[in-house]
Design brief:
Strand order of the largest sheet: 6-5-3-4-7-8
Structural class: alpha/beta
Largest sheet: 6 strands, mixed
Oligomer: single chain
């Protein structure tokens, strides 16, 4: 039965998991009824909904549909004011009216029984991720979403059984919305309210549950390593899903080995919904009720029950279909740049970079520098690459990488500007956007480039590349630049706040020592240790040359 929480004759059952507490279906229906009672007093037809917490998101979504409101889902907090809706609901006061506060006990008691939904009348507006430009508004109905999750249930429901849905992705986008909200709510599976964005959270939440199904993106699977507690987690895994991008074959094979099961990939888009699925190394196969064809431009076209009847939609993906109906993706057609009159496929450049022995991951985008169009590259180095960076320096390493690219791609496609990072920046959907990459090239740079990161609750170790264009080198000193001591302290405090979420204000410094100067183009290790009881951070900057600086930073309790 779909949406059995609405059936008055169905006994209450476990519905969601919020901060370790199981929420029953009866509590959810009471919250929906209470919020619907409140929303009915607002004249606005269109509302904006933004939540980190998936439970309160679900309450607001279904309450809004009870009151015939059109729900807009901004992709992230920076897009909240970009929707046409003036009534904003959220789980934090800085983003809108707080949903929990609108579900007061008094209004819960006054709330009437909820009538069934008319799925075709329940409207939703989602926004594309903006990975290839400005986000676009996509209109959906609940009926379309229910049609899609019914297909997912028919294919994968038996494997998932009664597992808890644990997600690394936001429900503000189509993948998270379907897998984290609509599917579990419709078929009575428990879903976790909190997102497991960091690997430590993902494994801790999984081990705390009986069985779990992971809803993650390729960007999150890439971060998982052999060092994670797989042995303790493997018995808890029911199913692994990936979407919002194509999963690298090496990553798919590695995670399948660690977890003991293949990752089920879903291919689709905000416009089309789900299109196909696969478990590598097999090719993609269309979901039930999805028809495929290739047009004259080589683009994939689909006709789906998730869309309007008899509507063929052209996707931005090139593909080839084999005789058995399965297909292979050949790259994005919208990721073409024109460099010196040549059409350059950005995906092909990224693939060439990723195949370099020193590189774990890479992304490129086209930019104009000094009146010339060229490519910029963001590179994630592996341990061998970092060692070469220490040995050769940035200029020599980049020269070597460029040399290795010759013959694999056109010379005009070889990136001109390079940045190193510990991981590619991703948005809430797990996608890397040109805007996020461009921020890494902002000039002048105020932070070092993070090459690698290891973290737990009390320890954090970063490898940092101190590039010559760091703004703090300017004027300190002419012809012989060194990194100021105050900058080192500032960075230690800034990284500590980022990785330990320290609430208190900075109070004082203790036992500060400066042993060796830091020059441009140096690879440093920053070791941070957080003492929560004493509210202080111990830091130390070191390199192959030895210790550079160290000390303690004390924060107000």
């Amino acid at each position: 039965m779909i949406n059995k929480w609405l059936d008055r004759n169905t006994p209450a059952y476990d519905f969601a998991l919020q901060q370790g507490r199981l929420i029953r279906s009866s509590e959810f229906s009471a919250h929906v009824a209470a919020l619907a009672h409140t929303l009915a007093m607002h004249n606005e037809r269109e509302i904006s909904l933004f939540c980190r917490d998936a439970y309160w998101f679900a309450v607001a979504l279904y309450a809004a549909w009870q009151t015939d409101k059109i729900v807009h889902l901004p992709g992230d907090e920076t897009r909240i004011n970009a929707t046409p809706a003036t009534l904003r609901l959220a789980d934090e006061p800085q983003w809108g009216l707080v949903i929990a506060a609108l579900c007061e006990p008094a209004s819960i008691k006054q709330a009437a029984q909820l009538p069934p939904y008319a799925p075709d009348a329940c409207q939703l507006v989602i926004y594309t991720s903006g990975s290839s430009g400005e986000p676009k508004a996509i209109h959906k109905t609940l009926q379309q979403l229910l049609t899609e999750v019914a297909v997912l249930e028919s294919l994968f429901g038996a494997q998932m059984a009664d597992s808890v849905i644990v997600a690394t992705v936001s429900q503000q986008h189509i993948y998270g919305l379907l897998f984290r909200i609509i599917w579990p709510v419709s078929f009575g599976r428990v879903f976790a309210a909190e997102a497991a964005f960091f690997p430590e959270q993902l494994f801790a939440m999984s081990q705390a549950a009986g069985k779990v199904s992971w809803i993650a993106s390729p960007a999150h699977y890439k971060r998982l390593t052999e060092q994670q507690p797989w042995a303790a987690t493997r018995p808890h895994l029911a199913a692994l899903f990936s979407s919002a991008g194509v999963l690298n074959a090496e990553v798919a094979q590695r995670i399948a080995h660690y977890s003991g099961m293949p990752i089920t990939e879903i291919f689709g888009s905000s416009e089309t919904g789900g299109v196909a699925w696969r478990q590598q190394p097999t090719a993609w196969q269309a979901l039930p009720n999805v028809a495929l064809r290739i047009n004259d431009a080589g683009a994939l076209e689909i006709n789906s029950a998730h869309l309007l009847p008899n509507q063929w939609v052209v996707m931005d993906d090139a593909a080839s279909i084999s005789a058995d109906g399965r297909f292979t993706l050949l790259g994005r057609l919208d990721r073409i740049a024109k460099i010196e009159e040549q059409r350059i496929a950005l995906a092909r450049v990224e693939q060439a970079l990723q195949h370099l022995p020193e590189v774990t991951d890479a992304a490129v985008f086209a930019a104009e520098t000094q009146g010339r169009q060229s490519l910029n590259a963001v590179i994630v180095l592996n341990a061998a690459g970092i060692a070469l960076l220490v040995q050769l320096g940035k200029t020599a390493l980049i020269k070597q990488l460029k040399k290795h690219l010759i013959g694999d791609i056109e010379r005009v496609a070889i990136p001109r500007r390079w940045r190193f990072a510990a991981a590619l920046p991703v948005n809430a959907q797990g996608k890397t956007t040109p805007a996020a990459l461009q921020l890494l090239f902002a000039s002048p740079a105020l932070l070092p480039q993070t090459l690698s990161l290891q973290q737990d609750d009390e320890q954090c170790q970063l490898q940092l590349f101190i590039a010559a264009d760091i703004a703090y080198f300017a004027g300190h000193f002419p012809n012989a630049p060194i990194l100021p001591g105050v900058t080192q302290i500032h960075w230690a405090a800034q990284f500590a706040r980022q990785y330990f979420a320290i609430p208190g204000a900075f109070s004082q410094m203790e036992v500060i020592k400066f042993q060796q100067i830091i020059r441009p183009n140096t690879v440093l290790t920053l070791q941070l240790t957080w003492d929560e009881m004493r509210q202080r951070v111990t830091f130390a900057f070191t390199s192959e040359q030895g210790s550079h600086s160290s000390g303690r930073l004390v924060f107000a309790a």
